[in-house]
Amino acid sequence: MEDIRRVKPLYRSWALLIMLAITVLAGCQAESPIKVGFIAGTSGRVADLGISGRDAAQLAIEQCNQEGGIAGRKIQLIIKDDEQSPALARNKMQELVAAGLVAVIGPMTSDMGIAISPIADASETLLISPTVTTHLLSGKDDYLFRVTSTTRDYAAKSARYQIASGNVRSIAAAYDLGNKSFCESWLNSFVETFTAGGGEVRETLGYRAGADQSFLEIAQKLLTARPDGILMIANSMDSALLCQQIRKLDSDIAITLADWGATERLLELGGRAVEDVTVVQTFDRNSKAPDYQAFRKIYMDHFQREPGFPGVYTYDAVQVLLTALRMQKTDETLKQTILSIRRFKGLQSEFSFDDFGDVKRPHASISVIRNGRFVVVE
Prior knowledge:
- The chain is α/β, with parallel strands linked by helices.
- The chain contains 12 helices and 14 strands.
- The protein has helices at 2-31, 47-66, 86-98, 110-123, 151-165, 180-196, 215-224, 236-249, 264-270, 290-303, 308-327, 334-341, and strands spanning 34-40, 75-81, 103-105, 126-129, 144-146, 170-176, 200-207, 229-233, 254-257, 278-281, 343-345, 350-352, 365-370, 373-376.
- A 7-stranded mixed sheet has the order 7-6-8-9-10-13-14, sandwiched between helices. It has a 5-stranded parallel sheet with strand order 2-1-3-4-5, sandwiched between helices.
- The protein is globular and about 65 Å long.
């Protein structure tokens, strides 16, 4: 009997220890970070998009964590550089999926979106892209959501402006084959509107950076067609370099760019060669929206440069995810949560997703570069 009395407290002690261990483990589980991926080209010729996006994502996550995270759990951002290579992008996406994350922010270009969206679908991993705009990914019941409008809106706006100007009735176009799905989609939308308005397309020239053709040779071929204007559908670096070569051969010809090239890097690299160039803008650099102004100030304080459209749209993309994580019900996927919310507040304007995760932004404008700045003219 005495032995039994000694054993009972021992059982109680073990039970308390087990309960304590369970409590500690549960606490550790509750405090484990929520993993979020980010994938973009943060090196190479399109690095300005990826770097601005990466920095904006880090800023948004940092702010969330400072406010206590999601239900007390911090957000951990896992960053991958796709180097604008479809094969590498697929490998990096597989690595992100294997890391057990809840969603991925990115990629930043359409070709990379086409490369990795099948992986997102197969693994049922939410993919929220800030700047993928190709029509080839529109109208699909998949796991890709996009926070910016498709190429059709911006290309048509650009074409209408050129026709209305009265100075550009014929064009020759150069486009980057390294982001073919975006560029061809943009070109086709531009040509459709431009020719419907009475314009003529005299030359279209696809190129691949680092191939046999130099930018001088591309410029010469475009000008040989004797167009009224040149259209470039390329990243900011290529656009700046091509502008420099065209200006050497013809200092007066009109030049217009797709929205992809309209980053601050274009101004830095292009210098005088990009003066008077027109570009279609995907967001309002002069917006007085309080949220945008607050974000811009914090971003510039952190990184000493403008966020541009890649930073603004990436911040919006992260906020979509964070809002969904806060509002997600236990029996819902994140995809279902976003579609149930539908409408989100962006830095400059509200936007809403359709059933396929596509949006239409209310803003599109034409700017001309004057004195090293984008000046809105329409």
